[in-house]
Design brief:
The chain is an all-alpha fold and about 140 residues long. Helix content is about 55%, strand content about 0%. Helix 1 runs antiparallel to helix 2 (about 25-45). It is elongated and about 80 Å long.
């Protein structure tokens, strides 16, 4: 069973990397969620798959008498699921806001803060006829 889960983890990681290499920001977010799920499945598989009893200690005993399942990977996965969902919701809201402001989900078209490739700075906020302020001799 561990071998099958290892192959599934590999497939999920490959699909997530494929999605994350896309220029579409929404596909990147879906790839990030898929990568998070593959990490959760890796932790689950590393915790050993057993058909043991739940990790409960009978009253009056210092430790369980039978073979029990490891509760640590399950607790880590539950925490990671909650954190991953919060990250997904926040990222999705940022992508939605960026789409409303810029009108595109293409990451190459979202380059407002970067200079143009020709070296020309954008002058959207200034009048084209208004000259720049003179520089002082000290600078």
């Amino acid at each position: 069973m561990e071998v099958a889960l290892a192959l599934i983890v590999g497939l999920l990681v490959a699909c997530s990397i494929y999605l994350m290499l896309s220029r579409n920001v929404l596909r990147f977010i879906f790839g990030l969620v898929l990568l998070s799920n593959s990490a959760n499945l890796t932790i689950f598989t590393a915790g050993r798959l057993t058909r043991a009893e739940p990790p409960l200690v009978p009253s009056g005993l210092p430790f369980p008498t039978e073979l029990v399942a490891n509760a640590l990977p399950q607790a880590l996965i539950l925490t990671a699921i909650v954190i991953g969902f919060g990250l997904f919701a926040f990222s999705l809201s940022l992508v939605f806001r960026a789409y409303r402001e810029l009108g595109t989900l293409d990451s190459d078209a979202m380059r407002l803060a970067e200079p143009r490739p020709g070296g020309e700075a954008e002058t959207e906020g200034r009048d084209a006829e208004q000259p720049e302020a003179p520089r002082s001799a000290a600078s």
